[in-house]
Amino acid sequence: MDPIPSTPLHAAVHRLLSSMYEDYLRGDPSAIDARLMADVTIFDSAADDLVTGLRELATLRRERSSRPVDPDAPVWSETALTISDLRVREIGDTAVATWWLRVDGTDPGGAAVSPELSRNTAVLQSHPDGTLRIAHLHEDVRQEAGLIV
Q: Got the DSSP string for 103-127?
């Protein structure tokens, strides 16, 4: 549980992020995209270049799914994404959120692997339809997943 006192904005950001990660685990990129501004910028942990806009994000997803599998890379499947230490700061009509993300998973036999840990930052703005959307997302993996625990 977050030790930071919850405000309505904090709760809204937590709901948005939690829902986005649920969309990811379900494999629903269109639901994820609905939570992003059309001109979103993303520093994705699996890409070197800045992703700008939903079209480039779609291209990154296609490239990622068509890459040959590295035979030396650990094989694991994501089973849970957990947000912790979420902090939300309001700056005018913009919110800046920071949090840690824990990605749990299992190997092909179903055994737990060590979790991936990343620190994340998002800049959020209200969309004209009144919903909160992500304008910028930065992922920074601090511990790679895949070692069997």
A: EEEE-TTS-EEEEEEEEEEEEEEE-
